Amino acid sequence: MNEKYLMNVLSKNGIKSLRPPQKKVLTEGILEKDKNFIISIPTASGKTLIGEMAFINHVLENSPKNELGYIPSGKKALFIVPLKALATEKFDEFREKYNKFGLKIGISIGDYDSKENLSRYDIIIMTSEKLDSLMRKKNTTWLNDVSVVIIDEIHLLGDKERGGTLEIVLTKLKMLPIQIIGLSATIGNSEELANWLDAKLVVDTWRPVELKKGLYHPDENKVNYYTIEDYKVVNGENGENKQIKPLKNFGSSKSEISNLIVDCVKNSGSCLVFCSSKRNAVSEAKKNDLAKYLTNDEQGELNNLSSEILNVLEKPSKTCEQLSECIKKGVAFHHAGLAMKQRKLVEEGFRKRIIKVICCTPTLSAGLNLPCRRAIIRDTKRFDGKGFSNIPNMEIQQCIGRAGRPGLDPYGEGIIVVKKSSEVGDNLYMLRGKPEEIYSNISNKKTLRIFILGSIFSGEISSFGELKQFMKNTFYAVQYGDYEKIVEDIRDEVIFLMENGFIEYNFDFDDSDNFDNFDKKEDFPQKIENKGSKIELNLDDKNDEFKINSISFDENGNLMTGKNKNNKNNKNDKNNNKNNKGKNGKKFNYEEYELIEDASTTFKSTKLGNATAQQYIDPLSAKYISKGIKSIFEMKINNKFEINQNTENIGDIEQRIIYMICKSTELRPSLRVNKYEYDDLVEEMISLKIYEYEDYDNICAYKTSKMIKDWINEASELEIHEKYGVEAGILNYKIEQVKWIAHATREIFRALELSGAFEEYDSVKGLKTFIKRIIEDLQLRIEYGAKSDLVELLGVKNLGRVRARKLYDANIKTVADIGTNREFVIKTIGKIGYKVFDELKIPYGDLSIVDADKLKSTSSDKTEGKPKKIQKTLDNFF
Questions:
Q1: pLDDT interval class at 275 (50, 70, 90)
Q2: What's the CATH fold of domain 612-785?
Q3: Binding positions for ATP (predicted)?
Q4: Is residue 559 over pLDDT 50?
Q5: Burial class (CB in 10 A: 0-12, 13-18, 19+), 394
Q6: Which of 547, 533, 508 has the alpha carbon at shortest distance from 588?
Q7: pTM to 2 decimals?
Q8: Which long-range contacts (CB under 8 A, 24 or more apart) does 225-231 make?
C-alpha cells in the first residue's frame, strides 16, 4: 500500500493530515514491510496511530469489492499491550474504526490455555504473555499469517518481572519474516534496542500541546517553571532559567497542594495527582473539596455517579463509601484496589470533565488515555519493600506526559512538588527527564524455567546447544557480549526441570556400544567414565537410543540399577524401574556430569511437563502443587481414610489444596502477616500437618489461602475487606490468579494420574476419586465464591452465587429443578427475562407456580456426579 492509499484509509476515520512524527516515519519507510522500527516520541504525540499505519499497510488492500475501496488482505496483525485494561480500550477503538473495512478485530487476554479460535480475526490485541503462550502451542497455524507485530510500551522490556517474557517473544519474532514496530517512551539506550531488532530508530520531541515543567514550593505557594525559552526569567537553581508563578491562596485546606489544584480547576482545567501508594492517593483525595467550584449540573451528575459507585459491590465497603463521598466533591481516587467497574466509572467521569481531579498511583500513566491540564507529582519516592527509593525518571516523565489535552488545553503542566529544599536538585534532575537505560531481564530464574520447559514442550528447542543458540540472539547477549553466565543459569534450570520430573532426555550412543555386557562403570563409554559414584542414569534401551533418567553404581563401581543382568529382561517391573536412584537414593550430581550438554543429547517434556507448559505456569509452582497433592494422599492414608458423604475434615483438605495453590509464584506477593497473628497461623498450619512454617513466605501464603477459603465459603467482599484489609480490586485480581492455578492443578493431577504417580494409593478405595472431585469443583467455586452445594447450579452461567444460594435455600438444587419450576424461580429471584426457556434441552414440566412444600418432595436433596456440562445462561431459561 502506498502513501496515497494509506491516507485515503485514514481519511475514512476523519484523519486529514499527519502530525510531524507520523510524517517522519513515513519518510523513513514504515510502509516497507521488511523494515523494523523503534518509535520513541512523547506521550500524546500519536504513537498509536503510527502502529495503525503499520497494520493498515499489511491487513488491507485496495479493491472495488468494498464500497470504501478496501478489503482484508488475508494477512494478520498483532497489537501487543502491557495491560488488559489497555487491551480492552484498544479493542473498542479499533473495532469502531476498522470494522467498516471488513476487518475483524479480536482480543485475547483470558486464560493462557484457552482454546479460543483467533484464526478468524485480522487484528488481534493481546499481552506479551498471551502471545508467548500461543507461540508454544501446536495448533496455532494461523500465526503463520501474521506479517506485522506492533509492541506498545516496548521499553517495558526493562521491567524486572515481565521484561524477560517480552524479550523472549521479541527474540522469536526477530527470527521470523515479520515486521516489528516498537512504540516506546524515551529511553537512554534506544539505539541499542533498535540495533538488536535490526530496526530503524525514529526519535522526535514534538508534542501537540506545549508542556511546561515546574517545581511547586508549598511553603512559598509558588511554581518555578524551568524553560529554555525566552521568557522574563530569573536565574534558578543550577544556573537554569526559571519563570516564577505565585499562586493565590484559595482558603484553608488540609492538603498542601490544594492551591495548586484549585488554581487549575478554576481555569477550566483538570488535574491528575500522582501519589506513591494507594493509601496516599485516598488520603490526598479526601483532603480536597471542589464543591463550590462546580456548576449545579455538574453537582447533579456527580451525585448520580456517587450513588452508582457506592453500590457496585454486594454491600458497600469502606473504600466504596470513601470514593462515593469524594466524588460528590468533584474529586476521585484511582488505584488497583477499586473494583473494575468503579475504575471505569471514575475514568469515564474524568473524560466527561465532571470529575475534576483524580489522585492516583503512577500505574494510571501506563497507557490509559486520560490526559489532563496539570499533572502533579506529589511523591517522587516510594517504598520498595526495603526502604524508600526514587521513582524512575522514565515513570515520572510518563506521568508528566499526561498533561495537555489536544483541542482542550492551550498548554499542559507537569509539576513536581518539592518536599524539602535539599531535594530541589534531585527534583530538577527528574524534571529534566534524562531517561534511564533499560536492561535485559531474561536471566530471571522464573522466566528461564517457563521458557525452557515451554520451548521443549513445543518442540522449538530440543537440545542444550539450541538453548545456547537462542540466547545468542537475545538482548542479553547484545548487552553483555559474554553470555556464559546465563548459560550457567540455563544449566541450573535444566537440572531443576529434570530432577522434578518435567523433562527427560535421550542420548544416542555409538552403534558399537553394547550395553548387554556392561556391568561396571568402566564398561561404559568414555563420556560416562570418571564421573564419580553419584552418576545416576536409567538406560532403557529402544533400538540404539537410550532414555536416560538414572543409573547408579555402588562404591566398587558395580551397576546397581538400570540395564544390568538382574533386571534387563524386566522392563515392565514397576518396582525395578520406579524412581531408580540406587541403593542409597542418591540424587544425580549434575556438576560432575556434562552429558546434558552433549550434542547428541535431546530433551523431551514428560506428561507433568506437558501439563505445566500448557497451563503456562512456573514449573516451581507445579512442583509445589505436585508435592502438595502427594502429601494429601500420604496424610489421608496415615489417617486411615474412610470415604463418606460427611467426611469430617473435607474442609482441611480444601485448605491444604488452596494453600499449595497460594504458594505458587503467580500468587506473589502474598498477604503480609503481622506479629500479632503469626503464632495463631503457625498453630493452624501445624494442626493441618503443614510443616512449612519456618519460612515466613509460606505463612503469608497460608494467610492468603485462608482468605480464599473464606471466599468460597461465601464471605462477602465487605467481610473480606474488614477481616483481611483486602479491597475489591485486589481480591478480584487474586481470585482470577487462584482460579487460573486451580485449573492448572486439575491438569497437573491428571498428568500425575496418567504417569502412575498415584498407583501406590490404589489400595485405598475411593481416595483418588475423592481428592480429584474436590480439585475439580474448586475452580468453579473460586470463580463464584460459593460452597460446594452450589456447584451444579453455578454451571448455569451468569446465575451468580447470590441467586444460586436463594434458589438452593428454596430447594431448587439442580439444573433440572430450574427447568421444571420456571414460575417459582422467577418468584424466588425476580424477573430475569423471558427469552429462551425452550432452548434448554430438558423437560420443563408443569410451569405453574409450585409451593415450597411440594418442591421439597420433588427436588433432589443432593447432587451426585460432576457438574452438568450444560453451560446455559439465565436467558436460556427465561
A1: very high
A2: Sec63 N-terminal domain-like fold (1.10.3380)
A3: 22
A4: no
A5: buried
A6: 533
A7: 0.84
A8: 226/428, 226/431
